């Protein structure tokens, strides 16, 4: 088959797609990865074949201006903590409008969507696998008749909330239904001669990399898949210091990929945090962005620019992190108890699941996050062996999921079932002649 | 796109934006309103157009001072004194100093311009104020404050005919207000004759279908409509321009006993007659409909006052005036500073956007006892509604007559009238807060 994989240009969102892209490749399928030009180096470093489409998105500029309002709304605890049944229509309309205006329509800029559609008309993929916010992939698939699936990097908070929105909109009179995602996708599809269909939001099916106890049941066709850590685009090199077992419990402190590439982080005052943690009888491995000024730290703190999590986590007794999807899933896969300083989006939900499953702790923003409080929390995490056992159970669940290689036959079958006729009308004559 | 009829003033060159570009523009501004609304900006919350208590937001803006600077960059007033002064201030006008600007092509993330959200040039809603003064020279002798009453008998008979068709249960907007406004305007402007002939009925039906689509225009200047609504509005305006052009051409050739013929008789030119006529369709109809609907809603919410109007139907005019004060059909008036000015402790830069929150300002005017209450006894109380020299003032006299006659038609027929459900207001309608539905029982 021809498989088009797509993520908007942001490493943290692309990384989770690399192992499956390779599995498809080594199963003999043709694989292309489409994104804005800014992601081309990352795609190439992953050894995959890049298709740069459109202009780079400007989401950072937009979010710098809009972030305070967007974050203020989404601090709603019913949203963060996964109680969609308590969200009202006003919240859902606000959330959908903001995220469509400030995020979805920004990261799927028109030129990127249009070039992806043009490429798909020419290359004719059988299957499009899209990162769950990269609706351009769904549009290209819908227009060209390809089967298409979302590949999740975290619990499906988006769809869970969107389904609640749809349930509340349905009884409204038609002239009062205000669904910005649908409106935006409608005119975007209309530009390519196609009509809106709900699959453009959901995909024909969903590939889910979360362990079963962190997954939502959303009445959608689901293909579970084991999460495989991929460290890119940073080089994965085993440092010499990591080649022996640590003498003391080892703790990894990291802000993940997101902290390296954006200004958003849950880890404030890192030096204070590291000093406090170093008071414990532990060895601390801290990833701190190169160039970040850092005062001298105690001898049991090793500051590194970066370290491949799949290299260091198997030797760790605990990890302190910002709650991001990749770091969370890597720690879960290696059965490492987690202290999650999450504050936004799915990060909070995943952190709370850790508590529920006895595999870690969530420290909410505020006094609970003072350096001393983080230190005390970490001491508890290390002292109480039940966290290790809880983390091991999540690891078991993840190992129970089929690997990307094992998932490929299911994707082949689903593609055959969903592959259809093109629905769009080619705008360009070159495409029409083919 | 129909060609621009020559009887209407020249408009800006037709925008060449694609539906996607227009959609993205509207979505971005809608996003601004929600983002700043989430941070508590009361003006942004007002512009969202739903889900909030507008009176409370108006009061919040007023508490922030006579001129509140929204994070959208707009200077907003909800103070009676400041509103009255700004509505009269010659340094404020509808357009940008030095000519018009089309914000559609701009990068909104750099300009943050939210003053002319949807292009309304073809609808003539954003003409310079001097143009409305010129247009009023043809309007005033025929449909002005003193003269509009001459059409009352025609309006009464048109509204009465519509009311007589209502069943035991009917919808306030769909079965009474909208068709009555269409019938009244059709008759006054001369689209149909005095009798219920077939041609006249067809004209009424077309207007009944067209006017609600046009009515979105008053909201769309400040609040982005959904893309399909914006595009439908564009089509409706184009259709209205053709309708008006044909009407004026026909009456110029063969005058009748209608307002268009009377305006033409002023000899001030077909173009201005056509423009005034278009304004009655685009703004006047919506203002009349909103006023009539809100008057009925307010009266039914205050059964004692409904009973009073039913006993003395001539008080329908007082009910309309109190509705205009308490629940104005044009709640937000948008202006742009033509030069720098200092007012109420704020420096307003040239080209700054200024918005007057009329409903809140009306409740802050001296000389009104218990201003937050709807009360027929407020008759004669000061009000800033439909003032300021914009399109709303030009169409106001006829809109008052039409709204009054619709309320009167209801009051003389159905003393036992009661609501049989909840009021549904139009989505994204912060300016008009148009009633789209209210089931009624006779």
Automatic annotation (TrEMBL), chain A:
Transmembrane listed as a keyword: no
InterPro entries per record: EryCIII-like_C (IPR010610), EryCIII-like_N (IPR048284), Glycosyl_450act (IPR030953), Glycosyltransferase_28 (IPR050426), UDP_glucos_trans (IPR002213)
Highest taxon in the source lineage: Bacteria
PANTHER family: STEROL 3-BETA-GLUCOSYLTRANSFERASE, STEROL 3-BETA-GLUCOSYLTRANSFERASE UGT80A2
Gene3D superfamilies (UniProt xref): Glycogen Phosphorylase B (3.40.50.2000)
Name recorded for this polypeptide: Glycosyltransferase
Residue ranges annotated for the Erythromycin biosynthesis protein CIII-like C-terminal domain, each copy included: 273-414
One Pfam match: EryCIII-like_C
Record-annotated Erythromycin biosynthesis protein CIII-like N-terminal domain positions: 22-256
The family this protein is said to belong to: Belongs to the glycosyltransferase 28 family.
UniProt entry keywords in alphabetical sequence: Antibiotic biosynthesis, Glycosyltransferase, Transferase
Single GO MF descriptor: glycosyltransferase activity
Assigned EC number: 2.4.1.-, 2.4.1.326
CDD domains: GT1_Gtf-like
Automatic annotation (TrEMBL), chain B:
SUPFAM superfamilies linked: Cytochrome P450
Top-level taxonomic group: Bacteria
Coiled coil segments of this chain: none
Listed transmembrane segments: none
Family as reported in the entry's similarity comment: Belongs to the cytochrome P450 family.
Entry protein name: P450-derived glycosyltransferase activator
UniProt organism field: Nonomuraea roseoviolacea subsp. carminata
């Amino acid at each position: 088959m021809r498989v088009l994989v797509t993520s908007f240009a942001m490493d943290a969102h692309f990384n989770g797609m690399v192992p499956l892209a390779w599995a498809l490749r080594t199963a003999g399928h043709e694989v292309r990865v489409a994104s804005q030009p800014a992601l081309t180096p990352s795609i190439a470093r992953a050894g995959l074949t890049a298709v740069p489409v459109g202009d780079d998105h400007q989401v950072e500029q937009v979010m710098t201006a809009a972030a305070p309002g967007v974050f203020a709304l989404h601090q709603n605890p019913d949203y963060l903590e996964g109680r969609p049944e308590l969200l009202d229509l006003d919240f859902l309309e606000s959330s959908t409008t903001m995220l469509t205006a400030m995020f979805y329509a920004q990261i799927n800029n028109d030129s990127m969507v249009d070039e992806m559609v043009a490429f798909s008309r020419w290359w004719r993929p059988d299957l499009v696998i899209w990162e769950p916010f990269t609706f351009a992939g769904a549009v290209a698939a819908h227009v060209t008749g390809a089967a298409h699936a979302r590949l999740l990097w975290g619990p499906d908070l988006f769809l869970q909330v969107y389904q609640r929105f749809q349930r509340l909109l349905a009884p409204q009179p038609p002239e009062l239904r205000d669904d910005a995602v649908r409106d935006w996708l409608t005119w975007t599809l209309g530009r390519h001669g196609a009509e809106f269909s709900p699959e453009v939001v959901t995909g024909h099916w969903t590939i889910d990399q979360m362990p079963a106890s962190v997954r939502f049941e959303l009445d959608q066709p689901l293909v579970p898949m084991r999460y495989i850590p991929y460290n890119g685009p940073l080089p994965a090199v085993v440092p010499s210091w990591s080649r022996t077992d640590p003498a003391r419990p080892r703790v990894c402190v990291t802000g993940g990929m997101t902290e390296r590439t954006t200004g958003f982080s849950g880890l404030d005052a890192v030096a204070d945090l590291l000093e406090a943690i170093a008071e414990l009888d532990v060895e601390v491995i801290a990833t701190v962005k190169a160039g970040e000024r850092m005062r001298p730290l105690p001898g049991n703190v090793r500051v590194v620019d970066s370290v491949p999590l799949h290299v260091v986590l198997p030797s760790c007794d605990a990890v302190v992190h910002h709650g991001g999807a990749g770091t969370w899933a890597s720690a879960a896969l290696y059965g490492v108890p987690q202290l999650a300083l999450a504050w936004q989006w799915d990060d909070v939900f995943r952190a709370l699941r850790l508590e529920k499953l006895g595999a870690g702790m969530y420290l909410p923003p505020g006094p609970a996050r003072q350096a001393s409080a983080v230190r005390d929390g970490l001491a508890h995490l290390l002292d109480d062996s039940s966290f290790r056992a809880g983390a091991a159970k999540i690891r078991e669940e993840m190992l129970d999921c089929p690997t990307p290689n094992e998932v490929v036959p299911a994707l082949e079958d689903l593609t055959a079932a969903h592959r259809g006729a093109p629905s769009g009308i080619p705008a360009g004559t070159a495409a029409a002649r083919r | 796109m129909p060609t621009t009829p020559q009887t209407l003033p020249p408009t800006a060159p037709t925008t060449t934006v694609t539906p996607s570009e227009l959609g993205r523009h509207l979505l971005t501004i809608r996003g601004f309103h929600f983002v700043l609304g989430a941070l508590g900006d009361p003006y942004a919350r007002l512009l969202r157009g739903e889900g909030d208590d507008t009176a409370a937001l108006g009061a919040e803006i007023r508490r922030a001072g006579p001129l509140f600077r929204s994070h959208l960059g707009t200077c907003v007033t909800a103070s009676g004194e400041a509103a009255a002064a700004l509505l009269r201030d010659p340094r404020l006008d509808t357009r940008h100093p030095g000519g018009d600007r089309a914000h559609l092509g701009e990068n909104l993330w750099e300009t943050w311009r939210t003053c002319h959200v949807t292009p309304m040039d073809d609808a003539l809603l954003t003409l310079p104020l001097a143009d409305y003064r010129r247009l009023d020279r043809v309007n005033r002798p025929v449909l002005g404050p003193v003269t509009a009453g001459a059409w009352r008998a025609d309006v009464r008979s048109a509204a009465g005919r519509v009311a007589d068709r209502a069943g035991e249960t009917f919808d306030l907007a769909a079965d009474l207000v909208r068709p009555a406004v269409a019938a009244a305007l059709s008759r006054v402007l001369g689209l149909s004759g005095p009798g219920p002939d077939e041609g006249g009925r067809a004209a009424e039906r077309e207007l009944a279908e067209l006017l609600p689509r046009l009515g979105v225009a008053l909201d769309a200047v400040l609040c982005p409509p959904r893309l399909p609504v914006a595009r439908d509005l564009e089509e409706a305006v184009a259709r209205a321009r053709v309708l008006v052009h044909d009407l004026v051409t026909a009456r110029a050739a063969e005058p009748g006993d209608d307002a268009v013929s009377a305006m033409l008789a002023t000899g001030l030119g077909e173009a201005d007659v056509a423009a005034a006529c278009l304004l009655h369709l685009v703004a006047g109809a919506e203002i009349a409909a909103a006023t009539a609907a809100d008057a009925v809603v307010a009266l039914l919410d205050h059964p004692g006052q409904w009973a009073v109007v039913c006993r003395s139907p001539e008080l329908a005019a007082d009910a309309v005036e109190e509705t205009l004060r308490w629940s104005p059909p044009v709640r937000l008036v948008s202006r742009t500073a033509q030069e720098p000015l200092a007012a109420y402790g704020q420096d307003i830069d040239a080209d700054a956007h200024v918005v007057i929150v009329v409903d809140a300002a009306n409740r802050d005017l001296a000389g009104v006892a218990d201003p937050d209450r709807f009360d027929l006894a407020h008759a004669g109380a000061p009000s800033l509604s439909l003032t300021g020299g914009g399109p709303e003032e030009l169409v106001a006299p006829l809109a008052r007559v039409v709204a009054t006659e619709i309320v009167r038609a209801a009051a003389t027929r159905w003393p036992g009238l009661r609501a049989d459900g909840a009021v549904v207001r139009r989505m994204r309608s912060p300016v008009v807060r148009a009633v789209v539905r209210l089931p009624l029982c006779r």
